[in-house]
# Entry
Amino acid sequence: MPCKTLDGKALAQRTRDGIAKQVAELKTRGVTPGLAVILVGNDPASEIYVRNKGIACEKAGMRSETVRLPAEISQERLHEEIERLNADPEIDGILLQLPIPGHLDERQALDRIDPRKDVDGFHLVNAGKLLAGEKTVVPCTPKGIMRLIGEAGVPLVGKEAVVIGRSNIVGKPIALLLMQAGCTVTICHSKTVNLAGHTRRADILVAAVGKAGFVTPDMVKPGAVVIDVGINRVEGKVCGDVDPAVSAVAGYLTPVPGGVGPMTIAMLLENTVEAAEKRA
Ligand code: NDP
# Structure
């Protein structure tokens, strides 16, 4: 069976069209969803992500505010900015663009965000609810991945899922969501012994490693759904964690660019609109 491309760009566009309609409806009730993105310092990659998020918001008819803070800002000043946004009735979602400079405590800053405005789902309250299987804000990248897998139309109950990566923003939450969907989940990381022995069992394989071309065809079960989360820059070109030659073995594969990335932004808009719905 030839490998099918899971087109995240197209699915994200359809999702954003739906969101724009929801936003228009919310506006008739006097509510314009608003997203504030806090950017500390001027990391070039973060600048691009923040700009794209702002453009996506505006295209959907939402309000967007970028709060630019100097790299040397103190923890207290950062918290003051977060508190200001917490108190702003026009702001439904607050996103702290990561990574932040090393002298700042990321955990403390994330936990200053009002959990109701935590559209990234990184606040400990929301992360805890996800772990407990309660309704909560689901982090954008894992939420987008679940939508992409849904597009493949592959039933998940009883399937073997293998996640490479155990970060709080991708690996752990996607493993939880796959488990909640009925998969038997294995989480692999840098200390895993015989990684390929695990990945070759996977009906669903999620690569969130941050190493270009890390997953090679010999690591993939024929017909598997392969989700490439990685964003790596090699000689100026963006590429994923999965070697494109995997398409000779996989049943479904997300491209990079145009797979998980656009879905992450669409889910950010969706989480912000959901927060605005609660305000309305
Ligand atoms: P992290 O660096 O936080 O995590 C990487 C994970 O990969 C770690 O758990 C690490 O293990 C594991 N790992 C590293 N080397 C190996 C190895 N040799 N074998 C097995 N596991 C290994 O990254 P993130 O989760 O934040 O991001 C992963 C990738 O996804 C990055 O490329 C990032 O840019 C991208 N990304 C893309 C998004 C999108 O929207 N498309 C959103 C977020 C991230 P250990 O824990 O043991 O160190």
Q: What stands out?
A: The chain has a mean pLDDT of 97. The longest helix spans residues 8-28. The longest strand covers residues 34-40.
